[in-house]
From TrEMBL:
GO terms for cellular component: plasma membrane. It comes from Lusitaniella coriacea LEGE 07157. The keyword Cell inner membrane does not apply. Its main location: membrane. GO terms for molecular function: ABC-type oligopeptide transporter activity; ATP binding; ATP hydrolysis activity. This is ABC transporter ATP-binding protein. The lineage of its organism: Bacteria, Bacillati, Cyanobacteriota, Cyanophyceae, Spirulinales. Residues 28-321 form the ABC transmembrane type-1 domain. SMART domains: AAA. Residues 353-587 form the ABC transporter domain. Keywords: ATP-binding, Membrane, Nucleotide-binding, Transmembrane, Transmembrane helix, Transport. It is a multi-pass membrane protein.
């Protein structure tokens, strides 16, 4: 079984809402402040209408009906209410801005961590099918798109909705004979917005895919900059990047062409409602069937109701970008973790390994390992050799459960490793790979990677055993020297010795050496061999090697061909068999058979 993305089970907004349940109280606080801010924002036109009412009707105004007949006193009351309204509007505007922005940052932070944490738990098959650039685009750009929507778009939707509800109810209460004229554009605008959203969704989905491809191209080229320079393919790569960037630009252009047309169309619909209220309401005010103050409120409120709807285009644009990104992030989170988590802690590991009839195949390929059985006693040093593609490195990945076997069992100290806690299992193993990966940081940080509680003294002792101390002391800042991304400031042999020091400091009961000396010179190989002779004592060691001279002293050597063990024995015994191993030995040493 393999990890692969699931098809979306529901729309992105529903998936986001399910994810956001833990932020429910913060969302309610922010939403309440947005609504209250809009309520107070809508109050000034009402106060203006009341002021007009005082000026026109004087002692017969609405306020006068509450017992305040003096005109100046009525205006003072309105002035006081205005100060309160503006004050509350400002307070709630500050509050919603703080709440929405902090909520956006919190969700963005948590979502990125959750997505990355889930990504780390997926098996290697997932990473073989997805580019690094694509995953970076999800973790960075897609998560940021969601933050932009929460920062601005969510508040806009709430405030427009509040405006429509309050003004619609107010119009129906104070002037039902005119309210319908103002209301006519609203269902048209809402219907148009929904239809517009459906048209935009696939276009922004395409935009997110194109930016993913562009990100993949950039990440790939930056990783391979040495190859680009050595083959002088700079111009070729610029053209390839130009193609990807142009595809992204064109997909954005198609989305922009549609989104830009929304606001002008909405304005035309709004114009009908506004002019109808202006003309018919004005005539009713003239003939006395509508109070002048009420007419003033209607005119102001019609504008406050309809013009904000023009911002729906920008809000929908943010929404669709965010939903396209949300779909990609949530699909990543929905990707199943195929590795059985295991709940058994291994405790003190002796290092006895049993592989019984194990079978493994990469997706859509023939089995790489076929009914392989192997027994490694605790403290024993064994070596595995064979031609390229025979399955040696795959075997290492199966021991670490980077992939899951499809048949057979692997036990460690009698415990099926599928039942073991992954952290516990991998903590018991130290891997020194041919392809050494060093992180951008200091020499000391890289040696202590995986052993964060180790002391400087312990790190230096490990470096001395790995024969790395001497060259480290010659570096500009010794153990504090920055090694560069992937350790590019160091030679291959230096990187390999740091990797060995890292494994020594971890002090695992099982040491796995995967072609640890295949890409170093003879002097470095000799230094590494001296280190290995020391660190393999009293621990189970599995050495995979092309150079047979490095493993001739192993307790047992296994020869693999096409996923099977075809020969086994000590160096001398295998030479005496005069089989595959003996032939490999003759080729490497130049001895003629």
């Amino acid at each position: 079984m393999r990890s692969r993305p699931l098809s979306p089970s529901s729309n992105p907004l529903q998936r986001l809402m399910r994810y956001g349940r833990k932020y429910r109280s913060k969302i309610w606080q922010a939403a309440t402040c947005s609504v209250l801010n809009k309520i107070f924002d809508l109050a000034p036109p009402v106060l203006i209408g009341a002021a007009v009412d005082v000026v026109v009707k004087q002692q017969d105004s609405l306020i006068a009906q509450f017992g305040v007949t003096d005109i100046f006193s009525q205006l003072v009351i309105l002035a006081g209410l205005t100060v309160l309204v503006w004050g509350f509007e400002s307070v709630f505007e500050y509050a919603y801005a703080q709440l929405w922005r902090n909520l956006a940052q919190k969700i963005q932070h948590d979502l990125r961590l959750d997505a990355y944490s889930h990504l780390q738990d997926l098996d290697l098959a997932f990473f073989e099918e997805r580019s690094t650039g694509d995953l970076l685009a999800i973790l960075n750009d897609d998560v940021n798109q969601l933050e932009r929507f929460l920062d601005v778009g969510a508040n806009e939707i709430l405030q427009v909705s509040t405006t429509v509800v309050i003004i619609s109810l107010g119009f129906m209460a104070i002037a039902p004979s005119i309210a319908w004229m103002t209301m006519i554009p609203i269902p048209i605008i809402i219907w148009g917005s929904v239809a517009f959203q459906k048209l935009l969704a696939p276009r922004y989905g395409e935009v997110r895919e194109k930016v993913s491809l562009l990100s993949s191209r950039l990440a790939n080229n930056l990783s391979g900059i040495m190859t680009i320079k050595s083959f002088t393919t700079e111009a070729f790569e610029i053209e390839r990047l130009r193609t990807e960037s142009e595809a992204y630009r064109q997909s954005n252009r198609r989305a922009i062409a549609l989104s830009a047309g929304f606001i002008p169309l909405i304005r035309l619909v709004i114009l009908f409602g506004f002019t109808a209220t202006l003309l018919i309401g004005g005539m009713k005010a003239v003939d006395g069937s509508l109070a002048v103050g009420t007419y003033s409120v209607l005119v102001f409120m019609t504008q406050r109701l309809l013009w904000p709807l023009t911002r729906l285009g920008q809000t929908l644009d943010l929404y669709q970008r965010a939903m396209a990104s949300t779909n990609r992030v949530m699909t990543l989170l929905d990707t199943p973790i195929d590795a059985h988590p295991g709940g058994l802690s291994l405790g003190d590991v002796r290092g006895e390994l049993r592989l019984e009839n194990i079978t493994f195949a990469y997706r859509d390929r023939e089995p790489v390992i076929k009914n392989l059985s192997l027994q490694i006693e605790a403290g024993q040093t064994i070596a595995i050799v064979g031609s390229t593609g025979s399955g040696k490195s795959t075997l290492v990945k199966l021991l670490l459960r980077l992939y899951e076997i499809q048949g057979g069992t692997i036990t460690l100290d009698g415990v099926d490793i599928r039942e073991a806690n992954l952290s516990s299992l991998r903590s018991a193993m130290g891997l020194v790979s041919q392809d050494v990966f060093l992180f951008h940081g200091s020499v000391l940080e890289n040696i202590k990677y995986g052993s964060p509680d180790a002391t400087l003294t312990g790190a230096i002792a490990a470096a001395k055993i790995a024969e790395a101390h001497n060259f480290i002391e010659k570096l500009p800042q010794t153990y504090e020297t920055i090694v560069g991304e992937r350790g590019q400031k160091l030679s291959g042999g230096q990187r390999q010795r740091l990797a060995i020091a890292r494994a020594i400091l971890k002090d695992p009961p099982i040491l796995i050496l995967d072609e640890a000396t295949s890409s170093v010179d003879n002097e470095t190989e000799a230094a590494i061999a001296r280190s290995l002779e020391y660190i393999t004592q009293n621990r189970t060691t599995i050495a995979i090697a092309h150079r047979l001279s490095t493993i001739r002293n192993a307790d047992c050597i296994y020869v693999m061909e096409y996923g099977r063990i075809v020969e086994r024995g000590t160096h001398e015994a295998l030479l005496a068999q005069n089989g595959i191993y003996a032939n490999l030995w003759r080729v490497q040493t130049g001895i003629k058979g």
